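pipeline: protein-struct stage 2 | run 1193 | Probable succinyl-diaminopimelate desuccinylase
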Amino acid sequence: MNALMQRIENRRDDLITLTQDLIRIPTLNPPGRHYHDVCSLVGERMSKQGWKVEMVRAEGALGDSDRYPRWNVVCRLEGRAAGDCVHFNSHHDVVAVGEGWTRDPFGAELDGGKIYGRGACDMKGGMATSIIAAEAFVAHHPEFSGAIEISATADEESGGYGGVAYLAERGFFDPARVQHVIIPEPLNKDRICLGHRGVWWAEIETKGHIAHGSMPFLGDCAVRHMGAVLDEMEATLFPLLAGKRTDMPVVPDGAKSSTLNINSIHGGEPVQDADYTGLPSACVPDRCILTIDRRFLIEEDIAEVKAEVARMMDKIRTTRPDFRYEIRDLFEVMPTMTPEDAPIVRTVQDAVQLVMGKPAEFVVSPGTYDQKHIDRIGRLKNCIAYGPGVLDLAHQPDEWIGVDDMVDSGKVMALTLTKLLT
């Protein structure tokens, strides 16, 4: 064990460089830039070490286009004898930079033991850690049994349909091919994430009647109708959701309740192009669209989640003349939670104890990640998220990943490989 741990320590500079190289490729999603570049970086590195490399474009998947093709890479190394396959899956896309940065978002600056940049924490640091851990393990145990896979996949930040979902539909996560999956999401190095809450996205449209703005009494304002929806949400729906609690170990504590986020609202005249210098036209809005992001608990039924909103809308209709609306599903994901006694959970739990000197904390993510596709499509239940990084830093300005945290997580990953493949 000590020799393997030293191999990880000896690769500290390589781990830093690899993380910086990954961050400096601005794989922004949307729209999906430089996906091929980052997959090539990973694929070429692993190919030089004898790994079989597959570049997979998710042709026809949601978001895929000739301008922004959805590229994924899967690297596999076979052992000397038959055995299980351990797969490390990391998404390579990152969210928009946003405002408030004090450092170059794609500069990958190393300062005070931290590497800064968009995607440093979520999750290029985790990707680099899994690669270094696998390389150190293979160098230490060249006679290992089974197989190791490393994947870098697209579009997790926008649902994963051009990434893990596409691969799962094509058998890459078939339990006959892969037996253990670790997703190095930034859930803190001493935590094991067993799964996530469910999600239902939907659009609520209120309908009105267009008329001249100087005579609004001849029309019917859809925005005013939506105002009534917002009022009713505040009065009844939000308190209802706040009162629901789960036994799932969701973090942070606020996510142990059901939640609803108003993602966007659009009504009336569309926003004009930036070079338009005129005034708006005088019209009564005839439609208003609200997008909701409803996160629900494993104890809740998706049909009841939707029925709560439908009942709220029907209640409003009884009090407002000419109130017309439509609810449209956008997508839904069921909650998932891997059992605490699953093989990958027990193995990583033991490795965390050895490296950190304390028991691992079991948690559940407030938001979904690509485990949903490995579970639902791949039918592979033996899957967790484990990786370096502080979850609260994800999507924030001046996002960073700690080098020491990556090294420690790398040791946990290498020990996990040792326990499962030797």
